[in-house]
Amino acid sequence: MGIEKKNYSFRFHEDMVERLRAQAQLENRSLSNLVETILLQYLSTLEEKTT
Questions:
Q1: Cα 6 to Cα 15: distance, rounded to the nearest angstrom
Q2: What Cα–Cα distance (Å) separates residue 6 from each residue in 9, 28, 32, 36?
Q3: How far is CA 8 from CA 5, 32, 36, 37, in A?
Q4: CA-wise closest residue to 19 among 42, 40, 38
Q5: What is the pLDDT of residue 9?
Q6: Which of 17, 34, 39, 41 suits a disulfide with 24, CB 3.0-4.6 Å?
């Protein structure tokens, strides 16, 4: 059994999405995976600062 994920809808500036899409393609990953990875890194950094 895999990790259960939920779908969410967000609004982003179109130019930012295009830049993220280009980076995701360079890394051979989906846009969704790239955004999830970025957010996980951000949360990890926050947690490190509070401990």
A1: 25
A2: 10, 23, 12, 12
A3: 10, 11, 12, 15
A4: 38
A5: 94
A6: 34
Could you tell me the pTM of the whole model? 0.85
How far is C-alpha 10 from the geometric centre of its chain's CA atoms? 12
* pLDDT reported for residue 38: 98
The position carrying tokens 């401990």 is 51
Express each pLDDT in 2-37 by its tens digit.
889 899 999 999 999 999 999 999 999 999 999 999
The pLDDT score that the predictor gives to residue 3 is 84
User: Which H/E stretch holds residue 31?
Assistant: helix 31-50
